[in-house]
TrEMBL record:
Residues 7-271 form the Nucleotidyl transferase domain. Its EC number is 2.7.7.9. NCBIfam families: galU. GO terms for molecular function: UTP:glucose-1-phosphate uridylyltransferase activity. Keywords: Nucleotidyltransferase, Transferase. It catalyses: alpha-D-glucose 1-phosphate + UTP + H(+) = UDP-alpha-D-glucose + diphosphate. The lineage of its organism: Bacteria, Bacillati, Actinomycetota, Actinomycetes, Micrococcales. The keyword Transferase applies. It comes from the Bacteria. Belongs to the UDPGP type 2 family. This is UTP--glucose-1-phosphate uridylyltransferase.
Amino acid sequence: MTQRITKAVIPAAGLGTRFLPATKAMPKEMLPVVDKPAIQYVVEEAVAAGLTDVLMITGRNKNALENHFDRVAELEATLERKGDTAKLQKVNESTDLADMHYVRQGDPLGLGHAVHRAHMHVGDEPFAVLLGDDIIDARDELLTRMLDEQVKRDASIVALLEVDPDQIHLYGAAAVEVTDDPDVVRITGLVEKPAKEVAPSNYAVIGRYVLKPEVFGVLAETPPGKGGEIQLTDALMTMAEDVAGTGGVYGVVFRGRRYDTGDKLDYIKAVIQLAVDRDDLGAELRAWLIDYTAGLETH
């Protein structure tokens, strides 16, 4: 019987320089998306897929991440004394989400290095990796499907998104072969941020992975690549060749809603997109947006 995957790894050691000065003293993962920090959406996604054991890879000045998922006794006591049960429930949601663990990356040697730091915690079982820059809409299935495909195919799984060919240079691009499922492809190669003219496809790798534990051995042998960092993409290229019996790599094609919080413009779009769908904010915000955008045409 195949053991159910329960462990998620969330790399969160980056400096967030694209959001300076906001991230000078606050982790970029704590930037609010409407009324929750971006990192909470990611942890909630993991938990909704049954991943209740969450390891966060952090770095210096990231204490706010640990504090957010910890108890705040004095705040809870104040809200309870005031009888503000609605706010108390919101505070407790992040505290009770998952069994949270933390390890520091140490040297900033890339995503592959960060994932390798999870080896001792994960051990010899498959696990998921979720990157905090990508928020997947809770109404759209992705991670659950990836977990199912990992069990079915006994392989590592990455999430793919079809993007405009003019945008493929912003992503890792996958060379693929079709399978018996139109939403699943076998990955035969990966190219990091290729020019449009040489990209193997317009399938972009986005920040969700379900990996077999063999990835740790591959990462240990992976030399520094682009930017002098150990790239997870390079390790996945090796695994896609299945030279060491790693089962290969497959991609699940995601056709749902994804919000990119990786740069300022996309972050602003993500906040608006999520807010307009909220029952408590949507109607008033949509009406305001219509009036506001109509006024822009006169400028």
